[in-house]
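We give its fold:
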Amino acid sequence: MIEAYAHEGYDIDTGMIVELDGQIYHGGDALWTINSLLSKNPFLKLLGHRRFVRWIYPALRAGRNAAIRVLGRKPIRA
């Protein structure tokens, strides 16, 4: 499946991917999609704003990449 996303121009190492009802969401849009489907918590309603998620997503991705390096893991498509 990763190869199919790569063929369409999506890089799994630069952002998460969510596929829902035939639509592909990547990066901040994927996070927004997950939150809009699952979040009933009023504290997390801020993540319901697509602009905010697109703004904060690079910091979240940087944290993920740092954790991967600290744990000594390699990127998925290395």
